[in-house]
Amino acid sequence: MTLSRRRLMAAVPAAAVAGLSSGIAVPAFAQDNWPAKPVRLIVPFPPGGGTDILSRLIATQLAEATKWTVVPDNRAGAGGTIGIAEAARAQPTGYDLVMGQKDNMVVAPWLYKKLSYDPVKDFVAVAHVAYTPVVIVTRTESKFKTLKDVVEAAKAAPDSVTYGSPGNGTTIHLAGEIFNSTAGIKMRHVPYKGSNPAMMDVLAGNVDLMVSSLPSAIGQLKSGKLRALAVTSARRSTSMPDIPTVAEQGFGKDFDVSTWYGIFAPAGTPAAVVNRVNAEVNKLLARADVQAAIHEQGAEFQALSTEAFGTLLRTDVQKWKGIVQASGATIE
What we know:
Blueprint: H1 5-8, E1 39-43, H2 50-66, E2 70-74, H3 81-89, E3 96-101, H4 102-111, E4 123-139, H5 147-156, E5 162-165, H6 171-183, E6 188-191, H7 195-204, E7 209-213, H8 214-223, E8 226-231, E9 258-266, H9 271-285, H10 288-296, E10 300-301, H11 306-327
Parallel strand pairs: 1-2, 1-3, 5-6, 5-7
Antiparallel strand pairs: 3-9, 4-7, 4-8, 4-9, 4-10
Helix pairs in contact: 2-8, 4-11
């Protein structure tokens, strides 16, 4: 069975969100009765981007498979940190989950001078969903045909080439800055509040390039409205294997920037709930139709235990400390 994009993007009735975060005192947890009401899945980016698409895929399929009510709730802004911060403040009852990614769970702690949450202390890793390369794109009418064209233009006129991203502090933003450093150029970063606004501006020619997760850009790439110049991962994407890597084009033999997506819960969420959600999500990831839907969006599915996902989080947090500090990037 093929899962259509239209189906994945179907709106969830707003009424289903009512009462999920009303501030009313939460009764004592009863694991035998969980979930006794809708489960909110916070999506820390606007509708239409890669995080939103994958979140709605998982929410829809989880609801169908388990008969739970799972409600995606977009809380966008500040590179995804607003939605993550809201999840950190939520009651640890299992009724508030969040789709985090490397951007806001790994990079943000080292990029933002003031952050209201600690991804390791304030969250428990629940279920890894997918990982994806970052892609550098331009509109098909652009004068830039290759990555070399971009580098030559940027060297000839520093700060003249612009690139959009889903926001300051994202892995995608850092991918652009790391490419600047690797190629010895200076492109001007233009941050947006999510992938869709950035996509609209690159299609309109208001910015020269967009650095994006592959799921956010794959629809426009397949339609021919965008041209891909490179993926930033060490290997080519299996979804779009014709796109060369940055390293293949001679810019940093070890160039490798990718991102991952996974579900987190506030620290203190009962282990029974964490393990149950992990088991149900991993069942979905074992299904061929869900695998195909994730692959269709340009991502690679990957099921992990809660322990393995937690280890990935802690390892990446330490790894990206050095990367962010070397880039010199900071956000107030």
